[in-house]
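Students often ask why we bother predicting the structure of a whole assembly rather than each chain alone. The short answer is interfaces. A chain on its own may look different once its partners are present, and contacts between molecules only exist in the joint model. In this exercise we take two input lines together and write out one structure for the complete complex. Read the inputs first and try to guess which parts will touch.
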Amino acid sequence: MITTSENKLTAKDFVPDQDVKWCPGCGDYSILKQVQTIFPDLGIPRENFVFISGIGCSSRFTYYMETYGMHSIHGRAGIIASGVKSANPNLSVWVVSGDGDSTAIGGNHFIHLMRRNLDLNYLMFNNQIYSLTKGQYSPTSEKGKITKSTPFGTIEAPFNPAELALGANASFVSRTLDRDPKHMQAILKKANQHKGTSFVEVYQNCPIFNDGAFFAYSDKETKKEEAIYVENGQPLIYGENNNKGIKLNGLTPEIVDLTTTGVSANDLWIHNEQDKTKANLLARMFDAVVPDVHFPRPFGVLFAEERPVYEEMMQSQIENAKAKKGEPNLDSILSGDKTWTIN
Amino acid sequence: MDTAQEQVAGNKVNFIDTENVVIRFSGDSGDGMQLTGTQFSDTSAFFGNDICTFPDYPSEIRAPAGTIAGVSGFQIQFGSKEINTPGDSYDVLVAMNAAALKVELKNIKKGGVIIANTAGFDKKSLRLAQYSDDADPLKDGSLSDYKVLEIDITKHTKESLSGTNLGNKEVERAKNMFILGLIYWMFDRPTEHTEAFIKEKFGKKPDIAEGNILALQAGWNYGENTEIFTSRYRVASAELAKGNYRSITGNHAAAIALIAASKKAGIPLFLGSYPITPATDILHDLSKYKASGVKTFQAEDEIGGICSSIGASYTGHLAATTTSGPGLSLKIEALGLATILEIPLVVINVQRGGPSTGLPTKTEQADLLQAMYCRHGEAPLPVIAAASPSDCFDTVFEAARIALEHMTPIICLTDGYIANGSEPWRYPTEAALPMIKVHFASKDEWKEGPYLPYKRDEKLSRPWAIPGTPGLEHRIGGLERKHETGHPSHDPENHEFMVKLRQQKIDKIADYIPEQKVNFGKESGKLAVLTWGSTYGTVRNSLIEMSKEGKEVSHIHLRYLNPFPKNLEAVLRKFDKILIPEMNNGQLSVLIRSKYLIPTISLNKIKGVPFSADEIKAKVNELLNN
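Now the answer. The structure tokens for the assembled complex follow.
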């Protein structure tokens, strides 16, 4: 899939002649910019990129990339992309979807895509609200949220998309956010490198219907306490001046103060991308795993495992059958095994 | 059996020559009646008979043994003349138990033969078949109109296998081979074909193979050596057109038609599908053709079936999805997308009784209007329908041609009756099949300006540039497209223009399909019967028979339902009356009436079973006499 083209592409090569029509201040602009920025570095010919999107603000993304693309129907981007990638494994396939598109109307396709593990990249723009339909709660909206369709607050428990993806047997689960371009670029590159379905949850601000939902993780005053950036092989450290760490007591995470307790970095939870049990814990840590303890929200690659990808297994079954039986000619298929002749 | 003349053949048993025979094998779901029927059909086809079969099984996989709900039947009509249907009523019924007799009794011809397995008529079996206390149809004289042959098939099978090492279960299972051997004897058919089949099927289990062959031969010998049969029957081979034949079901024909179309188009085949009765066999069949490069994708649901196919089509594959009525309903939103994307896609709908789960294993033609109109917005699509099991090949191949050459999704309708039924098929060679023209756009053709994904050719179809083509990167999608550029557009003038353009494009397919002909009878007259889909066989049969009685009625059969052939109105207007028999509430009538204002007459049957010739003839006679 990865080949180098003679003339290196630039970000501008991925900008089409169409006006971008997101609202001013929308987090989608940042995501578009980061994607266009890293694409020339991936070494993939432009004609081999395919974007498949569903419906929602996020899904207009396809129109803003000078690549092949299909802006499809609500919730179906992942399964259309599965057809694309199965049919032509040489393409670099990118799905763009939102929290509603992925976890409400497209929930079924989402979980099955994760377990099948096609080698494609799945960007889920999570703004925890339905924006294109002008402000109803989504499956990721926090409980109690007042929206146009829940004037008395939602009564539904939300999905945690990373946890959902892990539960659906995803081989790569990551989280980043619109207001941290560098981090997003690094995650996008890792997602591209990962062979398998790479799930990238992007916290994305909707300035109109859910403004500031994720500012705690990017605002200077709060982000050190509210966000933790995980790196493979590194201890879980965060806080102002990196003064806090997370330690595992059995399978129970604990917050420790590194300045007063004498706990050293080596005693902390060392992030291991391949440990699924811990990845599950990490993905849902902030959802009150331990009552009354406020954990920071993890960003980074939470889980990554190498395992066979669908389209290659599909292709190898075909190659094996051909090697074993030889490719039958059409005449033998038309006649079948048992024939008779009338003269 | 239409005509029968006695001949003395041997000392004890007469041979009766007859033109056609209908046999119904009926028993419990676990009795192996489908296999028995298929074997008898294959042997008769090899012998040179024209045949038509009808497997009729319950939707329960194994309903409680011995109950009416568990009765599974396989019907075959074979003859020395043209056979177009599995037959309306049976000359011979094999009833493996009381429930089978109870279900089938109403369809046995007077004077017909009933072979009853007495082991299936014990007290328990009679009770399970809901015969009232002490009633036993074999003893109470209620079958006096028929020739009843009572045989303890179970016991005889056990005796024939007493020298083998087979367990009770295997012995019990072999009883269908005993009955098959007996029926082979009765119709003067050799057992060799089935013996070869058994050896192949149980190649790794020689004990079981041997046991089944013993049972088969024991059945044959039972006929030869006992005196309960006074007659045997001979059905000469049919005068079929010269050529090479095979037996084929509609679903298998559909599967290999897709392979053939992909080869003739020079592009790979992709099937995205979700299992649903009675369409699933197409998925089963295609998944076996890995060595031919066929990609099959069992999706998570019906929507996934069509959407994965849309994705594959986008990359330049011949893409298909297979389903039945409720599944088509689930695919409708995606069909709207495929319509506005204007990409090729073959949707095969094997119709069954509806609405909802309805009669999942029974046949119906009630999805015609769904195929025609069930879309959001103005979303015209071509619709074509198959007439018989072998016609499923030609129709699906043609569907693929239209989809690829006209850049459109297409709905191809078959139904449970022809999908599972089989008939001899004079199969084509690869060389005899037409090429399907597929062209992928390249940058060389678009040097002058930007690629215009929605520019039109003479067919009003658009170019197909697939991902991976340098320089033709472009976006398509479900938003209304601007004429030629394909950019999203909310311009009101453009929307109306595009709606009309998409309609014209589908209408224009009429320029690329054959004109309508009168399939049987004269080109004008008092009455024509207009059919579509699987009613073809019964109507053709009925009208051929009526013509022998001097009744002139023409038969017009439609393959192309949208667009109609250009000359259809002119063809229809040459008749005083048009009768449309349909296994629905009159859906083709709605189309013909609305399009041509011709006051068609409907004959409707919505019982999950095909029309009988008698039903067609009665209505035709009524119209001829009034």
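Check your guess against this: The two ends of chain B are 31 Å apart (CA to CA).
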